[in-house]
Design brief:
This protein has 145 residues and is mainly alpha-helical. The chain contains seven helices and two strands. A two-stranded antiparallel ribbon has the order 1-2. The longest helix is centred in the first third of the chain and has 31 residues.
Length: 145
């Protein structure tokens, strides 16, 4: 299986802002909290948009079976992977992994230390997505603008 649940590596180390941190593996509890805070709200928003569209097009109680299947579909692995490769998602998961060995670190501090160029390395180090997937999903700001 590819994606966020592909592997749970042993502890690793990462340098952030010139300091070396130990990154513990992501636990099932970490993934559960991540899903509740980052994936589920977006999933519910998409469901609400589909329901509203169905009501506009077909009225209450009338909806094509294909759209109904989309509306009631559970959260997908792709939705979880996309959320993990956002800056907020990566910062949150990294923070959870750092807290196990550095309990005083805050989410805000983690966000401040995180740079876009580190996201693929962090996601791979946490065993969340492979390098190719992370690089494909993370958009580096264009310096020429």
């Amino acid at each position: 299986m590819e994606g966020i649940n592909k592997t749970i590596p042993a502890s690793s180390k990462i340098e952030l802002c010139g300091k070396l941190y130990e990154v513990s593996p992501i636990s099932l509890e970490d993934l559960s909290v991540f899903q509740e805070q980052y994936v589920k709200p977006e999933h519910k928003k998409l469901q609400r948009e589909k329901i509203d569209t169905a009501k506009e097009l077909w009225g209450d109680g009338k909806c094509p079976p294909e759209l109904y299947k989309e509306i009631v579909a559970p959260i997908t692995q792709d939705q979880i992977d996309r959320a993990a490769t956002t800056i907020d998602g990566t910062a949150f998961l990294l923070w959870r992994a750092l807290q196990k060995k550095s309990p005083d670190i805050t989410l805000s501090q983690t966000r401040e230390m995180l740079t876009v160029d580190k996201i693929p390395e962090i996601l791979d180090g946490l065993g969340l997505v492979d390098d190719e997937s992370a690089e494909k999903n993370v958009k580096t700001p264009d310096a020429s603008r």
